[in-house]
Specification:
- Helix 11 packs across helix 13.
- The radius of gyration is 23 Å and the shape is globular.
- Strand 15 and strand 16 form a beta hairpin.
- It is α+β, with helices and mostly antiparallel strands.
């Protein structure tokens, strides 16, 4: 009989941000506990207080360099409400939507090709030196070229609408600060058909992997859960920029539907746990044990009644048919769903590029000032909530952010334990390839750990004093609270 062991994966690789996994094995090498720890701390909810409302859409996107547009737009939508603007001018709304579709598309392409593809193409247990984007490009040069070109297209759309590819300034409270020049529009139109062809081929690759590896996909980090996203009011279509909340259970039954974004706090509760800076949200009516849920591309495919672009809608039907119309609860199917959304975003971009409203000059609306605003959007990784209060001096007094990765926190932790139990229990020799299986489960959610970190109360602080011989002389600790 051996000794209990602690295995640590630090850092988790090929994700945005910093996290680690700890796995506790008992004396029989059985997994007792496995957790995903978020070990970095970001204080945005605190230090945004006191800043002027006009600054917020620019400041908060510094949370992340991968999905800044999502924070930029969610904050701008919240500040629209505070500025009394319920309906944007058509040019402003459509420019923001164009920006958002470019963001979702390029983020999904980055994740699928650069972060996930090495596992899918070479195998979860392939040598570590092979599992990287450089090997993907070396062995599949045309695939690599297209991946780079597609991401560049999405970033160019962001630059044209936000002013910069990263941390732009396009969305302002009440509207947008630019329109789309004809020359820029024509340049995008010259590329859009190729982008759609390549996106459909990438979709076929993701769909084929899921179907060809049905036994693996169906058992790998696969477990029932609730799902939540925004959908379009009225017909329940996929809606990435605006909409109302819909949540379903693992069998597809409705938990809530048609919920306005400003009422999110009536149905969601944020729980905290001592071992992570990331919160654990759950549906209030169901409680923390049964009320946790998942968000993101697969959750959106599960909750949406249909997709309002033809190519993506056909792909959505294929995905739903794979499970006989029931919600898909397998984490690896996120890759298939992600590529459906790439096709959808490109279809939407093409549609918008033909809209003359993008060249309009009515860019900003005004209204009667309010004290509170909530902006909600579907970011690449899932639902994103920004909630602010602003005083009479235009200074922020309250900020709460619930980001996509936070919504998925419980799901990721369950995935870690599920895969660890399946591949590590009973094994005396733990290989790097075995541990990569756990990272694959986390990557399926495309987590952005930088965005998702929070803290309750004060940061824990421990100071230890050692003498010259390395002996502990004294220690002091300030606990959370």
């Amino acid at each position: 009989m051996g000794e209990p062991r602690l295995i640590e994966i630090s850092p988790v690789t090929r994700v945005e941000g910093h996290g680690k996994v700890t796995i506790h094995l008992d004396a029989q090498n059985r997994v007792e506990e496995a957790r995903l720890h978020i070990v970095e701390f970001r204080g945005f909810e605190r230090f945004i207080r006191g800043r002027l409302l006009w600054e917020v859409p620019v400041i908060v996107q510094r949370l992340c360099g991968i999905c800044p547009v999502s924070h930029h737009l969610a904050a701008a939508k919240a500040m629209d409400v505070i500025c009394g603007v319920d309906v944007l001018p058509p040019t402003a709304e459509k420019m923001r939507r164009l920006m958002h579709y470019g963001q979702v598309m390029q983020s999904h392409v980055l994740h699928f090709f650069h972060l996930a593809a090495p596992d899918l193409l070479f195998g979860f247990g392939a040598p570590a030196e092979q599992r990287n984007i450089f090997e993907v490009i070396r062995q599949n040069p045309e695939l690599g070229r297209r991946a780079i070109a597609m991401r560049k297209f999405g970033q160019d759309v962001i630059e044209a609408t936000a002013g910069k590819k990263i941390h732009g300034t396009g969305a302002i409270p009440g509207g947008i600060n630019r329109n789309l020049p004809i020359a820029t529009r024509d340049a995008f139109l010259g590329q859009i058909d190729d982008m759609l062809v390549w996106a459909q081929e990438a979709l076929a690759l993701a769909m084929g992997y899921t179907q060809d590896h049905a036994d693996l996909v169906g058992s790998f980090a696969a477990f029932p859960s609730n799902h939540m996203s925004l959908v379009r009011p009225g017909d329940g279509a996929l809606e990435l920029y605006d909409g109302q909340f819909r949540a379903i259970d693992s069998a597809g039954a409705t938990i809530f539907d048609g919920l306005e974004c400003r009422r999110y706090h009536e149905v969601l509760v944020e729980d905290v746990r001592s071992w992570s800076y990331m919160k654990f949200p759950f549906i209030r009516a169901l409680g923390p044990e049964a009320g946790w849920y998942r968000v993101g591309p697969l959750a959106r495919m599960n909750t949406a009644s249909h997709v309002d672009t033809p190519l993506a809608n056909a792909a959505h039907r294929d995905l739903r048919a794979h499970t006989g119309g029931a919600p898909n609860n397998t984490a690896l199917a996120n890759h298939w769903a992600r590529m459906i959304e790439v096709v959808h975003c490109l279809e939407k971009v093409r549609e918008l590029l033909h809209d003359p409203d993008l060249q309009g000059t009515d860019l900003v609306a005004k209204g009667e000032r309010r004290e509170e605003g909530i902006g909600v959007i579907e970011a690449p990784r899932g639902n994103l909530i920004h909630h602010y209060r602003v005083d009479e001096h235009d200074q922020v007094t309250y900020c709460n952010l619930i980001v996509s990765t936070t919504h998925n926190n419980e799901g990721m932790n369950r995935a870690v334990k599920d895969v660890a139990s399946r591949y590590l229990s009973g094994q005396e020799r733990i290989t790097e390839g075995m541990l990569n299986h756990i990272e694959v489960a986390i990557r399926a959610y495309d987590p952005c750990l930088s965005c998702a970190t929070h803290a309750l109360g004060q940061m824990p602080l421990q100071v230890e004093l050692f003498d010259a011989a390395g002996h502990l002389v004294d220690s002091r600790r300030r606990s959370v609270g």
